[in-house]
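dumping this here so i dont lose it
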């Protein structure tokens, strides 16, 4: 059945970048790992250069996903579940940004975005520890990408794609009609608690991740008591990762 009024191209393009993000983060993780473990300097350099290409591709993918999702939300394309579930036509433009992180997918996407920024800073500034640190950063990007791709694990759905169509997620009689969008006049709106200044700027603590990624390099150099202190700091930094479990 051909549905009237649907804008499918942004969703298809967004889904492409979601998959590209997953593949690029996986390739960057493997490449940085080989750069860390190889003994020959030439091999280390070759793998590091390849890993940088993959990580930049990952960063471009995440930014593209952000741009496409904002286009969908700001243009009120309610054929997409994320736009329908977290926004409405009555929202001011500044609150359309808050729609990003009301849902789980947007929160993981924001987290991934800041990882990209921190990773690019490490690539630009770090010389000695780039490969081992970026191995961990890229691996976490891979974990976040799986939450945006969405997959089924032993019958349990893990993560969700923000470009899923509303008619593929909800069961309702209107979706048997080709003109169902004429009946979807508005979205579900944004939670009133999120319609404030602080949720627009959405302060977060993702920069704590970077010391965490460096801290694992110190463990072999420390005595038992020092390792306990570092382990306590690691547990403190692990707070944001509880979102993955939640």
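and the seq i came up w/
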């Amino acid at each position: 059945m051909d549905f009237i009024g649907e804008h499918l191209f942004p969703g298809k393009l967004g889904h492409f970048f979601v998959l590209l993000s997953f593949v690029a983060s996986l390739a960057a993780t493997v490449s940085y790992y080989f750069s860390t473990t190889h003994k020959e300097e030439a091999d280390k350099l070759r793998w590091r250069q390849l890993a940088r290409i993959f990580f930049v591709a990952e960063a471009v993918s995440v930014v593209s996903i952000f741009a496409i999702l904002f286009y969908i939300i700001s243009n009120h394309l309610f054929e997409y579940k994320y736009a329908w579930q977290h926004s409405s036509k009555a929202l001011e433009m500044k609150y359309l940004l808050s729609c990003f992180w009301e849902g789980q997918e947007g929160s993981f996407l924001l987290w991934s975005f800041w990882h990209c920024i921190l990773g690019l800073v490490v690539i630009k500034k770090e010389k000695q520890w780039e490969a081992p640190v970026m191995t961990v950063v890229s691996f976490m990007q891979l974990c976040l990408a799986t939450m945006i791709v969405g997959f089924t694990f032993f019958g349990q759905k893990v993560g969700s794609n923000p470009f899923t169509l509303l008619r593929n997620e909800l069961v309702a009689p209107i979706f048997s009609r080709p003109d169902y969008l004429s009946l979807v006049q508005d979205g579900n709106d944004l939670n009133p608690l999120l319609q404030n200044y602080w949720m627009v700027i959405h302060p977060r603590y993702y920069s704590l991740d970077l010391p965490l990624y460096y801290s694992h390099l110190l463990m072999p150099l420390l005595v038992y008591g020092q390792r306990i202190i570092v382990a306590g700091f690691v547990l403190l930094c692990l707070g944001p990762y509880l979102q993955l479990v939640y």
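Residues 41-74 form the longest helix (34 residues).
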